[in-house]
Input
Amino acid sequence: EKKNPGEGDFVQAMGEIVESVWDWLKSDDGKPYLEANILSRFVEPERVVMFRVVWQDDDGATRVNRGYRVQFNSACGPYKGGLRFHPSVTLDILKFLGAEQVLKNRLTGLPIGGGKGGSDFNPKGKSDNEVMRFCQAFMTEMFRHIGPNTDVPAGDIGVAGREVGFLFGMYKKLHNRFEGILTGKPALLGGSNLRPEATGYGVVYFADAILRQAQSEDSGDESPLKGLTVAASGSGNVAIYLTQKLIELGAKVVTLSDSSGSIYDKEGIDDDKLEFIMDLKLNRRGRMSEYADKYDGVEYMEGERPWSVKCDIAFPCATQNELEKEDAEKLVENGVKCVCEGANMPSTPEAIEVFQSKKVLFGPAKAANAGGVGVSALEMSQNSMRLSWSREEVDEKLHSIMKSIHETCVENGKVDGEDHVDYVKGANLGAFRQVAEAMYQQGAV
Ligand code: NDP
Output
């Protein structure tokens, strides 16, 4: 805390990681890494770049934002992690996200390190031209620090295909190279099939694996999610494709939300309603309240989160710290069996404590939402080979990545003498051990 003043989110995330790996570091197995000071090295980002972004709005006024790239750890491959454009972006948040990303990326088993970046720029209410000028200005600095073998950013909150396209165009102009320096690109620019869907689908595959692990009998081809009632938050990229996959598997999604409030649709969101949400949120960037206006019997909870409703399983998919202790207690009271994180660090430590003490199955973000970066790494491979895999091929690979992450969590998180799996410990320890070994093998650098 003394070394990182005012960086509460970063300290919180690091505290959780240290707690999961400390016993192992003190064991005979972990001692060499403790003695080599791997933990002290791990908590220090390898490099942080902060820069001024100057651009002009449609009225010709000059605007100034701050840009960042946190290159956290490259022990296992080029830095990899999204760019976030949101007014809440600070160095603290990007450092916490960068650290999480290092472990998440390791869990995928693919050769990538971890980083995160972005800006306090708010794309909301900006015209396409303003967003383009901002992205171009951002890239005029960031191009110096990235490359296919150095650092390959992607999208995150506020950065999707449109922004990635503008960023890519400016990089190409500056470097005169058409190369895979960003993932999450539109298909014509070398984007992978299924990248937009990957995080949401991956969360569902992970939840499916958790429920199967907890079952006494294998349900075979039928997903244990079938027939379950789901409360999800958010209505962006992650929440939308999560809902799509859940509908396909026969679950009933009754809530979604945005930063203005939540909808509660007891009948459940079906394919037609989801199509409306896709147009509303992904194309028109509108408010979820429009959904409540359009469909009968839908309750709109203004300014509220969706955690007060009855559900079997909850998927927080909006933003960090959106599920607090009281929300967790309410969910438990309403009989929730499993909580799986689609967003990064959406549950506070106190909320996680509630779930774990009540033996609610809990899938932490760095394991559950790793499908997005997994497919991003597949996009890097496709770009290097200059070919494109089909949707089905990518989906199959995504499914097997999520199953393998689940296995790593079980191996490292099984509670002695119990059937219960501590997925938080399993994900942290399973990933950290590998990153520690890769750092160790590279000597004291
Ligand atoms: P989007 O920008 O597409 O959507 C974010 C959603 O969360 C929107 O519905 C937004 O509402 C809502 N939201 C944002 N801030 C708040 C807030 N303070 N309170 C309530 N709701 C809020 O982002 P993504 O869906 O891509 O990302 C969601 C989360 O998933 C983030 O934590 C991200 O880091 C994480 N993630 C995303 C990955 C990806 O592949 N996209 C990969 C791994 C993790 P509004 O429309 O009002 O802004």
About this structure: The chain has two domains: 46-186, 195-368. Residues 155-158, 199, 234-239, 257-260, 317-319, 322, 342-344, 369, 372 surround NDP (CB under 6 Å). Residues 391-413 form the longest helix (23 residues).
